[in-house]
Amino acid sequence: MVIKRQVFGEVPGYGMVDLYTLVNRNGFEARITNYGGIVVSLFAPDRNGVWADVVLGYDTLEDYLKDNSPYFGSIVGRVGNRIAGGRFSLDGVEYTLARNNGPNHLHGGIRGFDKVVWAAEALGGPDGPVLRLSYTSSDGEEGYPGTLETVVTYTVTSDNELRIDYGAFTDRPTVVNLTHHSYFNLAGTGSGNILGHELTINSDRFTPIDDTLIPTGEVRSVKGTPLDFTVPALIGARIGDDYDQLAFGIGYDHNWVLNRPDKGLSFAARVREPGSGRVMEVYTTEPAIQFYSGNFLDGTITGKGGAVYRQRDGLCLETQHYPDSPNKPEFPSIVLRPGERYAQTTTYRFLADR
Questions:
Q1: Helix (H) or strand (E) holding 136
Q2: C-beta atoms surrounding 239 within 10 Å
């Protein structure tokens, strides 16, 4: 196994940040920066042993610092996904957050965890090379209560997995819902859209959204809808169907409630790209997953190697608790209190069919 560290660039006001390369014994490789915990590159083999970078992103740190960067590869928090109206109440106190996505709060606000510099420590481990990132979010940061001590650990395992372990403690009651926001294209970044990828989601139910992408509170069966991925289906097969949920999301941008046999690491989703044979399996301890089909990529972003990223050129599979949970008491709680530990694990495993 190999761990390499190099300077990636400078964040104004914060100093230099690094790029860490983690390689397992098979050659499976992740390049991660401590700015936003961003997975800059992820190299996986196809059925013929040809390696390709399967995540969208940029070649330089300067590009990640631009305002229009759509969370490529980042750690998202303190609360991933949306909070309606940019406000929530906790223990009788109302908290006001930035409205940075129309009328709603998205992915932790103006300066969420994707836009901060994390302390980094590269380590060897029994499962493979490890990058341990830590960040202290101060009380009141982006409107959230409590000082939150957060640790996120990336491990490149010998089974060609990118495993992400999340942990956090707080000194005051707060809300936490961390996730990872890589845009995957298993044919390789810059290779075109993901409509021909085959997707399976281990879920019989989803949470319908309104026209601002906030869950209504209903939990609906996927049966008979274009959101049924209980058996493998091409992403592009039904994405243009006449269905209000697809109209609201401009495609898929929904939360699926996972079928979970227990609270351990469970199968969540599988993506296969028929041309290359690359397969990605997602396992998580979280209760849900957000599948986003890259609907808001619009051709205005130039990424790695000069590739122009257009609508649906990448897909996200964000393991999580449900969106707008602080305002939906019927949803699983994301409240974290002093003395409790927030902990979750998500694994992205790469293989190839024959």
A1: strand 130-137
A2: 18
Structure tokens at 276: 């290359």
pLDDT of residue 21: 98
Q: CA of 266: how far to CAs of 80, 155, 182, 269, 347, in Å?
A: 21, 18, 20, 10, 10
Choice among 105, 107, 180, 181 that is catalytic = 181
Residue 1 in this model has a pLDDT that exceeds 80: no
**Tokens 């830590």 belong to which residue?**
134
33 three-class SS: strand
The torsion angle over the Cα atoms of residues 319, 78, 69 and 21, rounded to 10 degrees, is: -70
Backbone angles phi, psi at 78, to 5 degrees: -70, -30
Residue 62's φ and ψ, nearest 5 degrees, are: -55, -35
- Among residues 18, 61, 351, which one has the least CA distance to residue 186? 351
What would the pLDDT profile of 255-293 be if each residue is shown by its tens digit?
A: 999 998 877 999 999 999 999 999 999 999 999 999 999
Residue 75: other Cβ atoms inside 10 A: 28
From 141, 142, 161, 318, the catalytic residue: 318
Cα 332 from Cα 41, distance rounded (Å): 33
For residue 327, which amino acid is it? Answer: N
> Which pLDDT does position 140 carry in this prediction?
98
Q: Kindly state the average pLDDT of the residues 69-74.
A: 95
For the cut 80, the answer to whether the pLDDT of residue 23 exceeds it is: yes
Maximal C-alpha separation, the chain: 58
Count of alpha carbons within 13 angstroms of residue 150, beta-carbon side: 31
Q: What is the pTM of this model?
A: 0.97
pLDDT at residue 59, rounded to an integer:
97
Q: Is 314:291 a contact under the CB 8 Å cutoff?
A: no
Q: What is the pLDDT of residues 129-158, one digit of tens each?
A: 999 999 999 999 999 999 999 999 999 999
Show Cβ contacts of residue 339 under 8 Å, excluding neighbours closer than 6 positions: none
Residue in the structure block whose two tokens are 């998580």: 284
Residue 181 bears catalytic tag: yes
